[in-house]
Each structure stands twice: as C-alpha cells, then as structure tokens.
Amino acid sequence: MLTYLAQDPTLADFGRDPWWLVLGKILFAFVFGLLATLLGVWFERRVVGFMQVRPGPNQVGPFGLLQTLADGLKMAFKEDILPKSADKVVYFFAPAISVICAVTALSVIPFGPMVSIFGHWTPLQVTDVPVAVLVVLACSSMAVYGIVLAGWASGSTYPLLGGLRSTAQLISYEVALGLSIVAVFMLSGTMSTSGIVAAQGDGTRLTLFGADVQGPGWYALLLFPSFVIFFISIVGETNRPPFDLPEAESELVAGFMTEYSSLKFALIMLSEYVAMVTMSAFTVTLFLGGWRAPWPITFWEGANSGWWPMLWFFGKVVLLVFVFVWLRGTLPRLRYDQFMRLGWKVLIPVNLVWIVVLAGFLKTQGWERADRLVVYGIIAGVVLLATLFWPSRKPQPQAPLQEQVDNRPSGSFPLPPMDLQVPPSPRTRRVVAEREPANIAGPDSREV
Fold first, then answer.
1. What is the Cα–Cα distance from 125 to 431, expressed in whole angstroms?
2. 198-202: long-range contacts at Cβ-Cβ below 8 A with a sequence spacing of 24 or more?
3. What residues contact residue 387 under an 8 Å CB cut-off, 6+ apart?
4. For labelling, which of 124, 278, 362, 403 has a CA lying 20 to 30 Å from the CA of 160?
5. Region annotation Disordered: residue ranges (predicted)?
6. d(C-alpha 388, C-alpha 391), whole Å
7. How far is CA 87 from the centre of its chain?
8. What are phi and psi of 230, to 5 degrees?
9. Angle at which helices 262-287 and 157-188 pack, to 10 degrees?
10. CA–CA separation, 15 vs 21, rounded Å?
11. Distance CA 232, CA 173 (A)
12. How many domains does the chain have?
C-alpha cells in the first residue's frame, strides 16, 4: 500500500498568512508567468528546430536562452503604430485584458503542499476557494474578450474576422471543456483545486488490478476520455496550432493582431504563452495528480513532502508544454468547418455519453471496482482517438491527367499546355514580327 507523507492543504489553511507572505506568493505567480513566457518561446523554437533538423536560437546567451529577452527589448523600441480608424481606448486596453486574465488564473493553482516559510506554515498556493475551478474557467473565458476586442478595435477587416473566429471557438470548445470537468467533480466531490489534488492522492483504499493502493490515482487514467477531450479543448481555447484560426497568417495576415506593434504586440504574445502554461498547470492539477510525484518516485517516502513536489509539478507542466509544441510542429491547421465539426459533432456528444456511463458505473459498482473503470476509460479513450483520426471517406482513384483535362467544363480557367511549352508573350511575338516582316501580299497577288 502506498503511503503519502504530504500534508494536503485545506480551505481552512488559507487566509491566515501575513501580508508580506501574501505579496510574496502573488509576486511569485507573476514572475512565474513572465519566466514561463521567456523560456516557453525559447523552448518552442528549439524543439521545432530539432524537429525540422536545424539548430534554432543558439547565439544570444548560453544555448540561446537570452534570445527571447533580446527580441522583447527589440519590440519595446520599435515604433508604436496606431491605426487611424481604430477605437483608441479599446485598442489600447485589449492586450492587457488577456494578460491579466491569464496571470490571475495562476492564483488558484496549487504548486505544492504545506511548507514552512520563515517559520510560517503555509500552502504553496496563492489562494483557494470552494469554486476555484470555476475561477480558472472564468479567467479563460474573459481572456478571449481581449482577442475579440483587439480584432474589433483595430478598424480593419482581417483583425475583425480573427476576432469573430475567436468568439466561435470560445462558444464551441468551452462547452466540451466544461463537460469534461464534470467527471472530475463526480469523482473528487469538490471544486477546490487543492481538494482535487488531495482526492488523487490519499483517500479511499482501492484494489487496483489485484494490488492494494491508497487513493484513486490520477484522473488521467480513471477518466481517460475526459482527459483527452479536455486537452483538445484547451488547445482550442488557447488558439494554439492546429486550432490557431484567429491568427491564421496564411489567410488573415496575422489575424486579430495584424494592426498591433511594439509593446502591445509583445503583450499579446505574452498572454498566449502565459495562457498555454496556465492551462497546462490546470491540466496537471485536474488529471495528473497536481504536485504529487509520479510512479516510481512515490516509493521514496519524502517525495511528496517539503519543496520536492514543486519539482514534480514543474516537470509535468513542461511535459504538457512540449505536447503543445509537438502539435504545432506536426499537425497542419484545420479548416474552419473541420474545426466546428470536431467540437459540436464529436467532442460534445462523446462527452455526454461518457458522463452518463460514468454516473451509472459509480451508482452500481462504486469505487470498489475502480480497476474496471480504468479499463473502460482506456477503451473509451482509444475509441475516441480512433474516431478523431479515422479517415472520413475512402480515397477515390483519380483519373489520368489527360482525362481530367478533357472533362473540364467549358469556360473554366485555362490550363498551361501539357508539354509545358508556354506560348510566347504578345511582346515577344511583336518583336519577332518586326525583325522578320511577314509577306502582306494576298494569295492572289502576282508580280508585275
């Protein structure tokens, strides 16, 4: 049986810290967001460079670590251009809305258990409330307003289209994201982030595949379909590839931030990476055990006590950020109709069916047969992934090229010659005619 020595914080442990400790926690969360952006940009460029067999940033600082800082300083000294038709007030505050919401969500993320800081016994978390999960969802929803307002206030067509796409993404994937968290509420019995982490550690004693373990384990295993749907939804919520349709540089120049420059552009970039790190930390909290050590480190009795849990937490966050980068380096951008179909016709129906199955299982079987729940969850997750990646139609055999050309409707766009011999241009024909004058005499003309 696994024994955890971590002292899980409860809601009663919050609100007792002195003012300087509260300010220190808030400063830590803010600095963590800034450093996550600086290192996240470098990490993404290095990983994508490795995938594309090129070095990536490696000149400024050791291993190129200061490249992002140099780019930020360069953006700060660039000219700040204000579009003539922009709504100046909304245009100015829109990037700040996204940054503030993304950083605020970090306030309810547990970074570790109870620790002693200068003699004060305190949790490694800024604060916690009975509905902390809803606080993160509210911050995620409000952050989209920054994108929508940025696109609308720019007074340009392409940013407006990017803002409208962001609105559709919020409506489509917020529903699937919320439904996937319902399963977590059903198992943990709480909406508190610290309570959800505690529920994944010590709690009910279970017989899992014939072995006695303490606690239900990570919800990523018990609720594998919810985990897959949740992660797909947060990729859509954060506008990351392959769901970066509000930006879509191949269609909308740069989408909602086309008209932004200098520090305002840097704020938009900051909000994107802070949101990516925040949602990765949120995923770790809900499904990957939070700050608890992964197996087999759990055999060490002190793995979940003291300051060590912060290392496990940051390691899990970096792993999920790598998955974000991996998706960007491998998957092409979806078409807009594919994106909407995935959210409304796949994720939401599968989520509803899974919640009904889970409720029936807990009603009839209970936690005593959690091993069956793991098996059912993995099977349902595999079926979900197969549904997502299974080809929708069989590839049709193509006719020969010449047959395709012959079957083209009349009046369609002209094709170049099949032998690739491009006819001479009018200018070339005119030059040839001037050099070699044609015989303008008619066919009936005779020499005199």
1. 80
2. 198/8, 200/289, 200/290, 200/292, 201/4, 201/6, 201/8, 201/289, 201/292, 201/304, 202/4, 202/8
3. 346, 350
4. 278
5. 397-448
6. 8
7. 29
8. -65, -45
9. 20
10. 11
11. 9
12. 1
Taking the alpha carbons at both ends of the chain, their separation in whole angstroms is 120
The three-class DSSP label of residue 303 is coil
In sequence order, the 6+-apart residues with CB closer than 8 A to the CB of 240 are 272, 276, 324, 327, 328
Task: Tell whether 6 is covered by a domain.
Answer: no
With a cut of 70, list the residues of the chain below it in pLDDT. Answer: 1-7, 202-216, 365-396, 401-402, 404-405, 408-423, 436-448
Here the tokens at position 268 are: 């938009």
The token pair at 274 is 């802070």
Domain assignment present for residue 425? The answer is no
328 falls within a domain: yes
Report the predicted TM-score, pTM, of the whole model to 2 decimal places: 0.78
Q: Which residues contact 167 (CB under 8 A, 6 or more apart)?
A: 144, 148
What 8-state DSSP symbol labels residue 422? Answer: P
* Residues contacting 382, CB < 8 A, separation 6+: none
Is 111:124 a contact under the CB 8 Å cutoff? Answer: yes
Q: Which two tokens stand for residue 2?
A: 């696994």
